[in-house]
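Protein modeling request. Please complete all fields; requests missing the sequence field cannot be processed.
Requester role: graduate student
Desired output: 3D structure, C-alpha cell encoding
Chains: 1
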Amino acid sequence: MSMKDLERVTKENERLIEEFKRFLERKGVEKSLVERHVENASQYALFYTTYGFEPKSAKEIDGFEIHCFLGEFIIRKVVNCTPAYMNEVAESLREFCYFLKETGIIDEYDLEEALERCEKTDIYIRRLEEYNRLISSGQFNKVDSWRMRVYEEF
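Delivered output (154 residues):
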C-alpha cells in the first residue's frame, strides 16, 4: 500500500470513528460509555488497521480480523492488558459492529461472525495469560510461535 493509500484509509477510518461516536450519542448512550466505546473501537479502527498485519479499511471487519486483533494485537500492544480490559474492548467492538451493520457497511453474515468472536473472550484471555507467562519467564524466543498460532486457532 502506498503512502497516499495509507493516508486515505486512515482518514476514512477517522471519519468512521466520528460517525460511530455520533451514532452512540443519537442512541442516548451515556457520555462516559460513548467515550469508552470510541476509545476502544479506535484501537481497532485507527491502530490495528494501520499497524496490524497490513493497512486496511476498518470497514473490512469480520470474525478473522477481530480474532487477530483480540488474540494477538491488543495483547502485545496494550501495556498491562488485563482480562477486564479484554472484555471491555470486546464489548466496544460489538457496538462498533452493530453500528457498521445498521449503516449498511457490513452484512448479517459478517456481523454474526464478528459477534461470535466478541463473545468468546475466554480464548483471548487464555492467550493473554500464556503471553504474560512467556514474557515474565523471559521466554522471548517463543513469542513468535505464540503469535503465529493465532491463525491456527481461528
